[in-house]
Structure of Tripartite tricarboxylate transporter substrate binding protein:
Amino acid sequence: MAAAEYPDRPIRLVVPYAVGGTTDIIARVVGNKLGERLGQSVVVENRPGAGGSIGSAYAAKQPADGYTLVMAVESSHAVNPNVYARSAYDPVKDFAPISNLADVPNVLVVNPALPAPDLAAFLRLLKAEPDKYAFGSSGNGGLSHMNGELFLKTTGTRMLHVPYKGLGPALNDLVAGQVQVVFDNIPSSNPLIQAQRIRPLAVAAKQRLKVLPDVPTYAEAGLPAMNHPSWFGLAAPAGTPAAVLDKLNAAVREALADPATADAIEKQGAMPSPMSRDEFGALIAQSYGHWKTVVEDIKFEKMQ
């Protein structure tokens, strides 16, 4: 296929998570701008389930012609394949990387009633009474669960883990005090933070966030191992022609350079972060290796 002829019909963008989540929001913001630059509509298709594996496996099996794209994110392409005994796809071999789209800071949030105004005080609580407190997650093996386990491993502390079917229910119980801690990302937590219904203690970001200027990064708080924002990118099935991938990469860069697009992403607490195809491929491989090591270190029992 000649890149000059591509695209001549609408493009599907598979989102392996539910409508309204961070992945879906970023996909729709960027997808609209991609459509404008490519001269064809980009139609978002949500295929949630199994921590992103259902939609990702589906996308990997689609024709490699540039008309099916997929959101390739840290949870589905680095964490998920490492926490299942058998993965339905290879995050490196089965996909052709296009570009990262945005980095999304993670945030450690607690119930305001917890007597911990900062991370140091929180760690003192955990060390004084191991297993007294509980953290909620989006489910066993999800990124929020793994971030919690990494936190416990890094700090030498212990908490109970309470898995939920998504971060929405976990945050609801955090507000209600049924759990005391959640390892979330900024887009879903920030409205509750601004309403003072939950309290942020640290963020995983390269620098302090405009939306939370008084909250230190994990690195500032002495936990550099936690200071890695999540990445949300775009990929195609392996074998997609290089000329098509190059055209898509260029369109992504143009879309993210648009002030309105950047502003829409930044309002979610995320940061536009375009990359070359090779850079994004290297990020996926590096992140996959990182979480493979974490899963081994914490002796996580892989799921069937």
Q: What stands out?
A: The mean pLDDT is 94.
